[in-house]
Amino acid sequence: MSQLIWNGLFVGSFYALVALGYSMVYGIMKLLNFAHGDIYMLGAFTGFAVLGAVGGVSPGMALPVLLGVLVVTMAVTGLSGVVLERVAYRPLRNAPRLSLLITAVGASFALEYGMRAAAGADPQVYPLRLGGTAVQVLGARVTLQQIALIIVAVALMAGLNLLVTRTREGRAMRAIALDPRTSALMGINVNAVISRTFFLGSALAGAAGVMAGAYYGKIDFLMGFLIGLKAFTSAVIGGIGNIPGTMLGGLLLGLLESFGTYWLGGEWRDVFAFGVLILFLSVRPTGLLGERVTERV
Amino acid sequence: MGKSRIALVWSLAAAVGMLTAGCGQGLLGGGSEEGGDKGPIALGMLVPQSGSEAAIGPYMKNAAQLAVDEINGKGGVLGRKLELKVADDACDAQTAVAGANKLVTEGVKVSVGGYCSGATLPTLPVFGKANIPMIIPAANSQELVDQHLKHVFLINGTGTQQATAAMAWITKQGAKNVALVHDNTSYSKDIAVRTQKLLDEQGGPETAILEAVTPKESDYSANIHNIMAKNPDFVYWTGYFQEGGLIIRQLRQAGYKGAIMVGDGSVSEKIAEIAGAEAAEGVYATMTQTPETLQGAETWIADYTKKFGSPPGPYSNQAYDAVRLAAEAVKNAGSTDGAKVISALEAVNGFAMFSGPLKFTPDHTLSTGGFQILVVKSGKFALQDALK
């Protein structure tokens, strides 16, 4: 039982990190950025390239080096997110919603197959692996590396929440979410704030990509597709546009998958997870913590 | 959401393509037969050159080209040269159907491709309508056999043979409680379910659990938890190497100490890389003959290496044999007419291949030669037991 919970929380924290980018962008622009999962993939490959450039690392230095790689990757994927928004979404900001959605799918394919052209179709294996020996905590097998990854994920999410609720920048984001036109009239530079939102969301997805690469080891150009869908599901469950809700949604989806697999068997895991998505969309489309539409961030 | 809609458009496009190709062939097939008797005889090959299994394509394509060049060097077949036409199936049903239609329009006389069973299955009617015999070198799901199509010949061991080999090794290892894990693709599930049947029939080892995973994920901890709960002493993974590597690693991380075996789709050195050298050491595999485990193939390996600058890989030998068999059948038939070539293939008796002398069963599968057991030693697969 405790093992199931731990597995669910661990996977869920990845979902939550990726889902935040979805949720923030949706909150501000009402855009479903389907290329977001591919930013996660881009993060995994950026981390791979940076680690390759760093060269051999002794096992004792693995965690500090990975933290460094994490920061570099977050900067790279953050900037890629900004470029993506500038190139693919900003020119269409006033176009019908469907055009934006189609562009997002196009951007997703461009990133996936661009990466295939650049890095090849073969899966790559991270030179640095977080394995580690397991310790028993309340009957669950837990490795120190897993704990470290969860701490990093929680720290990143807490930082984001502080930024959105306590700073001027965050206030600007919330203002735009409420009403972009009035915000512009009040002197908020809407384009700059949207760019920064994309930077933050993409940096978090990039961080999740590096962490997945270092923990699971295998990366490939299509790795972002499924987690993108699951992140979207998390965001809907928790309340898309709502930051604490999205985090909760991610963890909840991880737990649902973990318990769903246990109760119904492996082949029903995704049926269960996406069934919950349909249930939420029809019964409570605002999600668990979703608020009135006008107050989304 | 958006992707599934795009997939729908693609499948519609593929369906329309299949219809038009099917119609066109009925009208044009006869005409091209009379007109094309002078030029080279085209052999079509569908292999994955992109997608998750892209690494396999070149091994098969190069080996087929080697056979074509050797046969042409000896004057070709019926006084005509052979020509290899390759199309990408991306290990994906829709891409494969589009590729098969392309090959049919290009006028191939025999198909010598097919690696992923899931991608090969939907191409059977495409080649069938055009009356093109298929010699399938690698794809080996029982579903390919169960349709009893006259134009389909398998020269790789089938799911039934693989399950039998797995069962033999499980029994030989003295395992008691066996977990079977598959990825829900037709190929993988087929082997797992057939092995389960064998386990249930005989007295010895029992099935602990039949577990399915979702391919393309990174985290299989939920599935591993289910497996560990049944306390197995033998785990048999029947899917492909990408997930296989992750599952081996995560099983070991979860504290699993027993034996692990993988199916032929997982036989790639990448699996040891993904799992990590320590976790992969000692993992068994059920596999048809590979260049490394072939006896008496040294000259062939040297020829291949000289020509392409790298040694042959999985299914190179089967692809090479498929081309040679196609040439032999066309020669015996005295014509490239589909029906005559099919009769010639059915009549083949004792044709020398890497898997041994060839004679097809009434099901168009190999009557002898099949699977052996490999083991991972320092990151590479080596022969453990030939099961003879």
Task: Offer a concise description of the structure.
The complex is a heterodimer of chains A (about 300) and B (about 400). Chain A has about 300 residues and is mainly alpha-helical.
List keywords for this structure.
heterodimer, A: 297 residues, mainly alpha, two-stranded antiparallel ribbon, 11 helices, 4 strands, globular, B: 388 residues, alpha/beta, three-stranded parallel β-sheet, 15 helices, 14 strands, elongated, disordered N terminus, Branched-chain amino acid ABC transporter permease (chain A)
Our Rg estimate of chain A from Cα atoms comes to 19 Å
Task: Report the C-alpha radius of gyration of chain B, rounded.
Answer: 21 Å
Low-confidence residue ranges of chain B: 1-5, 12-35
- State which percent range the strand residues of chain A make up: under 5%
Number of helices of chain A: 11
Order of helices and strands of chain A: HHHHEEEHHHHEHHH
What overall form of chain B do the CA principal axes indicate?
A: elongated
- How would you characterize the largest beta sheet of chain B? 7 strands, mixed
Decide which structural class fits the backbone of chain A.
mainly alpha
Globally, the shape of chain A reads globular
Structural class of chain B: alpha/beta
How is this fold's topology laid out?
The complex is a heterodimer of chains A (297) and B (388).
Chain A: H1 2-29, H2 36-54, H3 62-89, H4 97-119, E1 124-125, E2 134-137, E3 140-143, H5 144-166, H6 168-178, H7 180-185, H8 190-216, E4 218-219, H9 223-238, H10 243-264, H11 269-283
Antiparallel strand pairs in A: 1-4, 2-3
Helix pairs in contact in A: 1-5, 1-8, 1-9, 1-10, 2-3, 2-4, 2-8, 2-9, 3-8, 5-6, 5-8, 6-8, 9-10, 9-11, 10-11
Chain B: H1 2-35, E1 41-47, H2 56-73, E2 82-88, H3 93-105, E3 110-111, H4 117-120, H5 124-129, E4 134-136, H6 142-146, E5 152-154, H7 159-172, E6 177-182, H8 186-201, E7 206-212, H9 221-229, E8 234-237, H10 241-253, E9 259-262, H11 269-275, H12 277-280, E10 284-288, H13 298-308, H14 316-333, H15 338-347, E11 349-353, E12 356-359, E13 371-377, E14 380-385
Parallel strand pairs in B: 1-2, 1-3, 4-5, 6-7, 6-8, 8-9, 9-10
Antiparallel strand pairs in B: 10-13, 11-12, 13-14
Helix pairs in contact in B: 1-3, 2-14, 7-8, 10-11, 14-15
Organism (chain A): Sphaerisporangium rhizosphaerae
Transmembrane segments (chain A): 6-27, 39-57, 63-84, 96-115, 147-164, 193-215
Protein name (chain A): Branched-chain amino acid ABC transporter permease
